[in-house]
Amino acid sequence: MRSLILTAAAMAIAMPLAYADDYAGGAIKSMETEGSEILTDANGMTLYTFDKDTAGMSNCYDDCAAKWPPLIADAGATAEGDYTLVERKDGTMQWAYKGEPLYLWVNDQKPGDMTGDGVGDVWHVAKE
Q1: In the chain, where the domains are located
Q2: CA 28/CA 47 separation, integer angstroms
Q3: Predicted model pTM
Q4: Spatial separation of the C-alpha atoms in residues 41 and 78, rounded to whole Å
Q5: Contact 70, 89 (CB under 8 A)
Q6: What is d(CA 22, CA 26) in angstroms, rounded to the nearest whole number?
Q7: pLDDT digit of tens for each residue in the chain (128 aa)?
Q8: DSSP 8-state class, residue 67
Q9: 105 exposed, middle or buried (CB, 10 Å; 0-12, 13-18, 19+)?
Q10: How far is 6 from 82, CA to CA, in rounded Å?
């Protein structure tokens, strides 16, 4: 019994983020932080939107995509509600929220980091 309690306590320490819901087959989660709901990937890493994208189309490729990896959908993923799929130039599908493609930021090191918010005045934390 004691090991079970210690395991539960260790898990609580290791997972300080509270997730509200899973979306897009578990690929996207929402997390409450500073009074708002932000979107994260399945691992709790913050997702971002790019002002230079247009509805349903990514404009982040090459060096941009190396710094801002697109949130690629698994083969066979299906869109649901506000979570849609955007086809990239190479034919892969990228998750989008309300038509805005979603990205990660290479400089975020751990779940909950939001170091990409405001970069170049064109990158923003994706919020519900």
Answers
A1: 18-125
A2: 9
A3: 0.82
A4: 16
A5: no
A6: 5
A7: 433 333 333 333 334 444 456 678 788 999 888 788 999 999 999 999 999 999 899 999 999 999 999 999 999 899 989 999 999 999 999 999 999 999 999 999 999 899 999 999 999 999 99
A8: H
A9: buried
A10: 39
